[in-house]
Amino acid sequence: MTLPPEAYLWFKSLHIIGVVVWFAGLFYLVRLFIYHVEAKELDEEIREAFYNQYSLMELRLANIITTPGMILTVSMATGLVVMEPSWLTEAWMQFKLGFVFLLLVYHFFCYRLMNQLKNNKCNWSGRQLRILNEMPTLLLVSVVLLVVFKSSFPTNAATWFIVLLIILMALSIQFYARYRRLSQSK
Questions:
Q1: Which positions bind heme (predicted)?
Q2: Among the four 8, 45, 118, 170, which has the fewest Cβ within 10 Å?
């Protein structure tokens, strides 16, 4: 069976939509984990209510948004590869698939953390979870650059300047978050 040419555009469009939904879920899910862990500092009378609410929000986000986004992403990517199987021989695609594999591991690791949080067995601190929350961002940037530049990634001074700006931006966000935490503790 041969697919019509417009099938490629449908696969590509739905793949991009799936990526946006999946990443939105991954970004917010770990943010909920941070709030969940930091609820330990609340008064005992209200702590349990917050734990229950965060557990419910995490489960709904994971099952209704994040995982369906992942399934849409992977299934539409499969359709794209079926239409363009030669991509599998290209280095950029092999690296991309490696990063996607890491994202899948991250996704299922989030389910593990979610279960630990629900059962009050999570030993991660808010700070550790904030660092974990940066992982999908790094993977997203890597995948987008691979897809856009493919095998012709520019390595001139302007490119490295942009990379440096991105790193500085990420560090400034971390420093600001730390500054805010320190200011609140005074």
A1: 15, 96
A2: 45
Task: Write the DSSP string, 138-180.
Answer: HHHHHHHHHHHHTT----SHHHHHHHHHHHHHHHHHHHHHHHH
Q: How many CB atoms lie within 10 A of CB 51?
A: 17
Q: Is 118 one of the annotated binding-site residues?
A: no
Residue 107 annotated as lining a ligand binding site: no
- Sequence-distant contacts of 119-124: CB under 8 A, at least 24 apart: 120/51, 122/33, 122/36, 122/37, 124/33, 124/37
Rounded Cα distance between 167 and 175, Å, is 12
The model's pLDDT over 95-142, given as tens digits with 9 standing for 90+, comes to 999 999 999 999 999 999 999 999 999 999 998 999 999 899 989 988
Whole-number Å distance between alpha carbons of 58 and 66: 10
CA 26, 31, 35: angle at the middle one, nearest 5? 150
Record the pTM.
Answer: 0.84
